[in-house]
Amino acid sequence: MSNLRSLSFDAIIIGGGGAGMRAALELAKSGKKTAVLSKVFPTRSHTVSAQGGITCAIASSDPDDDWRWHMYDTVKGGDYIADQDAAEYMCSEGPKAVFELEHMGLPFSRFDNGRIYQRPFGGQSKNFGEGGQAARTCAAADRTGHALLHTLYQNNLKNNTTFLNEWYAVDLVKNANGDVVGCIAMDIETGEVVHVKSKATVLATGGAGRIYASTTNALINTGDGIGMALRAGFPMQDMEMWQFHPTGIYGAGTLVTEGCRGEGGYLINKDGERFMERYAPNAKDLAGRDVVARSMVMEILEGRGCGEHGDHVFLKLDHLGDDVLGKRLPGIVELSKTFAHVDPASEPIPVVPTCHYMMGGIPTNVHGQAIMQDGDGKDRIVNGLFACGEAACVSVHGANRLGGNSLLDLVVFGRAAGMFIEGALNEGVDYLDASESDIATAMKRMSRWNESGDGESVPALKRELQAIMQNSFGVFREEENMQKGVRQLEELRARIGNAYLPDKSNAFNTARVEALELDNLMEVAEATAIAALDRKESRGAHSRYDYPDRDDVNWLKHSLYFPLEKRVGKRDVNFAPKTVDTFEPKIRTY
Amino acid sequence: MSTLQVSIYRYNPETDSAPYMQEFQVDTHGRDLMVLDVLHLMKEQDSGLAFRRSCREGVCGSDGMNMNGKNGLGCITPLSEVVKGNKLVLRPLPGLPVIRDLVVDMGLFYKQYERIQPYLLNSDPEPAIERLQSPEDRDKLDGLYECILCACCSTACPSFWWNPEKFVGPAGLLQSYRFLADSRDTATAERLAALEDPFSVFRCRGIMNCVAVCPKGLNPTRAIGKIREMLLADAT
Amino acid sequence: MVTNITSFGRSGLSDWLIQRASAIVLALYTFFIVAYLLLNPNLDYMTWHGLFAQTWMRIFSLLAFVSLAAHAWIGLWTVTTDYLKGTAIRVGVQTFIILAIFVFLVWGIQVLWGA
Question: A103 and B131: CB-CB below 8 Å?
Answer without folding.
Answer: yes
